[in-house]
Specification:
Alpha-Beta Plaits; Rossmann fold; 6-stranded parallel β-sheet; 27% helix
Length: 325
């Protein structure tokens, strides 16, 4: 049987789909797209030197506004009151590109895929508009739905598009973040997960040990180096980067654990260890749990013992809730 387009009646007339008999459910849609730019444009965006101002800040607001007004742009879309909409950007220095991601959420009788796709599209168009004085050859493309949930059709994941789940392991300095991650990893691996890690160094780290061949190359002025064997490889590049671009490098992982990032919006575990800190410093709205050896508690935030198995179980429960296990 050929699929039926539900925006046409039996006579072929365009119609708005009648959803009045449906029951509202939680709806979520995530869409992504990319704009390829020149190096001068990328430098202007990351260096905040574009003549029109904060390119990504304006593009973020434009994307959110567009998602909220999708029904005014797409003729047969239902007007929806979004409960949440976010637009985030990832700088891709190697590709000389910027990736936009829009997530839209609400409880409704119809989905929010078009809102997410519209938000991404307008965010990318805004980047073009703000940077076209530098380069008019920028290319917008690869706009696609990554994920949706809710409604009769259930959950949809675009094969190879959603990327890994991301959880930050946060806390004040010397709270034991590295120790907790290394204690969790065997449990996550035993659950069948491919887990990668990303750590932010607040200082300047040495990319290759002094005296190694690649270390000598960098010390002599190499812009980048690479080393590989039959099982693994490492690439060092002297480029500005953020955690989102590094997460993209692990697109085939199930989970990326970030070490640090206590003030970020990523979902996170926060360590509070006796003798090191007395109060959490992260936004409680971002916390999956407190991991602590004290009696500390936060309203609405579970507390678990400071041990790898308990902390790993929090992440596994989160992944199940998100439909990733």
């Amino acid at each position: 049987m050929e699929p039926k387009f539900n925006h046409f009646d039996d006579q072929g007339n365009a119609i708005m789909v009648d959803v009045s008999a449906k029951t509202p459910t939680r709806r979520l849609a995530v869409a992504q797209g990319t704009i390829k730019v020149s190096r001068p444009v990328l430098d202007a965006v990351t260096g905040h030197t574009a003549a029109k101002g904060d390119v990504l800040g304006v593009a973020r607001v434009a994307g959110i506004l567009a998602a909220k007004r999708t029904a005014e742009l797409i003729p047969l879309c239902h007007p929806l009151a979004l409960s949440n909409c976010t637009v985030e950007f990832t700088i891709l220095p190697e590709e000389c590109a910027i990736q936009a991601e829009c997530a839209a959420k609400l409880d409704a009788k119809t989905g929010v895929e078009m809102e997410a796709l519209t938000g991404v599209s307008v965010a990318l168009l805004t980047i073009y508009d703000m940077c076209k004085a530098i380069d008019k050859s920028m290319e917008i493309g690869d706009i696609h739905l990554v994920y949706k949930e809710g409604g009769k059709s259930g959950t949809f994941t675009n094969p190879g598009r959603r990327g890994p789940a991301v959880v930050a392991v946060s806390g004040v300095k010397n709270s034991g973040k590295t120790s907790l991650i290394t204690a969790m990893l065997p449990h996550l691996k035993a659950a069948g997960l491919k887990a990668a890690t990303v750590k932010h160094d607040g200082h300047s780290f040495t990319s290759d040990p002094e005296g190694t061949d690649t270390g000598k190359h960098m010390a002599a002025g190499a812009w980048g180096t690479a080393i590989f064997d039959r099982e693994k490889y490492k690439i060092v590049r002297q480029d500005p980067v953020d955690e989102r671009a590094l997460i993209e490098k692990f697109s085939d992982a199930d989970l990326v654990l970030l070490e640090g990032f206590k003030h970020s919006a990523w979902p996170k575990l926060e360590l509070v260890r006796a003798g090191n800190s007395t109060q959490p410093v992260c936004d409680p709205a971002t916390l999956l749990a407190l991991v602590t050896d004290t009696e500390l508690s936060l309203p609405g935030v579970p507390s678990v013992p400071l041990e790898g198995a308990a902390a790993a179980q929090v992440i596994l429960d989160y992944l199940r809730k998100e439909g990733r296990l």
